[in-house]
Amino acid sequence: MTVGAASMSGMTEALSYREASRELLRETVFRAAREKLEVRPWSEITMSDIAVGAGVSRQTLYNEFGNRDEFGLAFVMYEAGKFIDEVERSIRGRGQDPRGAVEVALERFLRLAAGDPVVATLLSDDGTGGMLPFVTTQGLPVISWVSERIGAVIVETWPGASEGDAKLIAESMVRLAISYITAPAGSIEETAASVGRLFGPFIDRVLTAA
Which of 5, 42, 143, 172 would staple 131 via disulfide (CB 3.0–4.6 Å)? Predict the structure, then answer.
């Protein structure tokens, strides 16, 4: 190995180590935040509380996230990612049945959300808890990120679906899912079936045209 190649290899390893360390830090502090949120509203949790729970300094949190609101948004997106992993698997598992995929994915999402203590804490917010806006009035970054992920899976698994149509379907699904989480209407099964009927004709039209 030449000196230049050895130097590049060392730099790559150093970057990989730093990235792995950063990912471990984020997982650790998000886990600490989740533990706090299972028993207390966001409005009562400080960055110091999270830092102590994670075993890091408060300055480390500020260096990584900027401020408390940015940390809160990053935490919501991290938690959302775990739900979306399951939604993606549901869509891929019904790749030959797009209508069914919408129903199964939404039902899976709603069931996971219904049994999650952090979601329960978030939804019990009476306006003073401080975290609900991250998925409602200030939720555009979360909606955009989740929609992009779901749209990519739709393009990947539904033959002929365009990026534009996939984006429309995905974003509409996400916004409806948030609405049904915050204001449930009927059983989870009924909700998923209703949304499937709503999207069905448009999905058929999109795929037939393709």
Answer: 42
Residue 21's pLDDT band, with cuts at 50, 70 and 90, is: confident
pLDDT digits (tens, 9 = 90+) for 157-196: 998 889 999 999 999 999 999 889 888 888 999 999 999 9
Query: CA 166 to CA 170: how far, in whole Å?
Result: 6
Q: Cα(65)–Cα(46) distance, rounded to whole angstroms?
A: 14
Q: Quick one: 200 exposed, middle or buried, by C-beta within 10 A (0-12, 13-18, 19+)? A: middle
46: left (phi over 0), alpha (psi -120 to 50) or beta: beta
| CATH 1.10.357 domain extents, the chain | 68-210
Residue span(s) of the chain under CATH 1.10.10.60 come to 1-66
Q: How long a stretch of residues is the chain?
A: 210
Architecture of domain 68-210: Orthogonal Bundle (1.10)
pLDDT tens column, 89-132: 999 998 889 999 999 999 999 999 888 888 877 777 666 666 77
Residue range 1-66 forms a domain whose CATH class is: mainly alpha
- Which among 168, 26, 157 is positioned nearest to 96, based on CA atoms? 157
Residue 159 contacts residue 124 (beta carbons within 8 Å): no
